[in-house]
Specification:
seven-stranded parallel beta sheet; binds NADP nicotinamide-adenine-dinucleotide phosphate; globular; alpha/beta
Length: 273
């Protein structure tokens, strides 16, 4: 359920790809929009298309891989109480691997995919909880649970987004603020090329259009999902994965080490003690 009172949706990375589709879909639902990105020409194009749905649209140029850019968007989010919907979407990839990696590029990616996402999420959570309404959509990736498929740094940023979202959902329970995290597979946007990956390397049956992805994510949102995996045929598979993870919980922090690590006098539990 999208917040019922007319409100503004702040979408980061709205100049193309997934963010531009969110702009179209949220405008169709009657949200005014604040579109954030670096490319003002493309932001303006997306804004003009969204305005055709009769909503007010504003663009804001900000580089979210830089502190100053993050701070400007955070300040707007903090001060503008018409904003009740955050699509925390902007993100980039980088060529895979750590050996000979361009560390500055990785750091910029972490700044955008982790720092900006966290600052915006924290600001939105604080203000929306105080207002008693709002929704936060965080864009993760299927790679959050499959680092072996691509790269530990990018997938690590997306695992961060997943963890952040799960804990935000818990923290915001009872506040009337929704949190959704979306884990897309490979989506046909400029993302892969920008990340230095070969988009043609993926079979067509692995790739989804951004329109299909966002429509599925919004259907998941409407259905009340916290975790949405647009291409996963059976959500019971995710539930089983998650249940297995949670089963570990009680045994991950104990007074004694496990018996397989036991040495004489080491304080291992020696079994089921
Ligand atoms: N495409 C995929 O296969 C895929 C799969 C799973 C998850 N995702 C995630 O989905 C999200 C959107 O990706 P996409 O596929 O739509 O990619 P995209 O087409 O490359 O779009 C990325 C968006 O992020 C913005 N952006 C990039 N760097 C930025 C910066 N420093 N400051 C502010 N905005 C910046 C870009 O706008 P400007 O260039 O105007 O700044 C653009 O609007 C990302 O978080 C990505 O990790 C994508």
């Amino acid at each position: 359920m999208v917040p019922s009172v007319r409100s503004t949706a702040l979408i980061t990375g709205a100049s193309g790809g997934i963010g531009a589709v969110y702009a179209d879909r949220l405008a169709r639902r009657g949200h005014d929009l604040l579109l954030v990105g670096r490319d003002t020409g493309r932001l303006t194009q997306v804004a003009h298309a969204a305005m055709r749905h009769g909503v007010a649209v504003e663009t804001m140029r900000a580089d979210l891989a830089e502190s100053a850019g993050i701070q400007r968007v955070v300040a707007r989010l903090r001060e503008d109480d018409t904003i009740a919907f955050l699509v925390n979407n902007a993100g980039v990839g980088a060529p895979p691997g750590l050996i000979n990696a361009d560390i500055d590029r990785l750091e910029a990616m972490i700044m955008l995919n982790v720092t900006a996402v966290t600052r915006l999420a924290a600001t939105a959570a604080t203000r929306f909880a105080a207002a008693g309404r709002g929704a936060i959509v965080n864009m993760s990736s299927a790679l959050a649970v499959l680092p072996e498929l691509f790269d530990g740094v990018y997938s690590g940023t997306k695992a961060f987004v997943l963890n952040l979202s799960l804990s935000m959902h818990k923290e915001l329970a009872g506040s009337n603020v929704r949190v959704q995290v979306v884990l897309p597979g490979v989506i046909r946007t400029g993302f892969l090329t920008n990340a230095g990956a070969d988009g043609t390397a993926f079979p067509a049956e692995m790739m989804m259009d951004a329109e299909t992805m966002v429509d599925a994510a919004m259907a998941g949102f409407d259905a009340g999902e916290v975790v949405t995996i647009p291409s996963l045929p059976d959500m019971a598979d995710w539930d089983a994965y998650n249940a297995a993870r949670l089963t570990l919980g009680p045994n991950l922090s104990r007074q004694y080490s496990a018996s397989r690590y036991a040495r004489a006098g080491s304080g291992a539990d020696g079994g089921d003690r």
